[in-house]
């Protein structure tokens, strides 16, 4: 297993280099001049002399590959430059916003798992029952309603009308409820259907029939064997969404004024804060890679068939 993880870690390097190449190329492909964007954000009238001075300061007068090499060195030192708006190091501002995004991501994932696992499992073993019809209805609602509209509905009913939860911001666990549920509902819709379909498929597998012929109780077969294998597609989907949640769910953070990483990115776009945008792209790529690696490791642990394919024995 260690060899597998080591190989995957090495495979991260070319992806990271490609992401750094894209972020460096953004400066040259973008119609916005970084020097002009900096002066505009600082409320300084751009002149030819000031523009040339800032281009030299940012290293934009150097060849592209030298800029690329310099950016790699700085990234390895966690130096993403200075924000054009706040005039502070980008990394120092990012690490103050990431905890809020992690809190929101973990809250939404926890709600999604607690609801979708029992609901999807019961819907699969009790096909066409009331709980199955309810899971279909909940999945339809979760997949159909846009997150921003759902967020505003929650604010209107639970904050304005019933005064149960705060409208915006952070501070207590009550602030976390509405944005977490808003993010969790689409995930519940996806995971419930994935788990239901996987349970139905695995119930017809030979290992289930063999377990029944051995006289093992049906509840043990379903809980210990079927659920363990059937949950694999759901974990894959969880890994795909984890990176997205950790990079900040932009719309939900904007709706609930959540001071997270995604909202910081939106503000950077409006302010043409290029160092922040570059930092967001690189961190986003890294989080997606790491989350997929974690999912692969978990899949190997819970599914012996995957372990045998990669040559790892439990």
Topology of this protein?
Blueprint: H1 2-29, H2 34-41, H3 48-58, H4 64-76, H5 90-125, H6 130-144, H7 147-161, H8 173-202, H9 206-213, H10 218-230, H11 232-246, H12 250-255, H13 261-271, H14 274-302, H15 304-309
Helix pairs in contact: 1-4, 1-14, 2-3, 5-6, 5-8, 5-11, 6-8, 7-8, 8-10, 8-11, 11-14, 13-14
Characterise this structure.
This protein is mainly α. It has a domain at 96-267: MetI-like fold (Orthogonal Bundle), CATH 1.10.3720.10. Helices cover 78% and strands 0% of the residues. The chain has 15 helices and no strands. The chain has helices at residues 2-29, 34-41, 48-58, 64-76, 90-125, 130-144, 147-161, 173-202, 206-213, 218-230, 232-246, 250-255, 261-271, 274-302, 304-309. Helix 1 packs across helix 4, helix 2 (34-41) crosses helix 3 (48-58) and helix 6 (130-144) packs across helix 8 (173-202). The longest helix is centred in the middle third of the chain and has 36 residues, at 90-125. It is flat, with a radius of gyration of 24 Å. The protein starts with a helix and ends in a 5-residue tail after the last helix. The relative contact order is 0.14. The mean pLDDT is 82. It comes from Metabacillus endolithicus. Residues 98-299 form the ABC transmembrane type-1 domain. This is Nickel import system permease protein NikB. Belongs to the binding-protein-dependent transport system permease family. OppBC subfamily. Its main location: membrane.
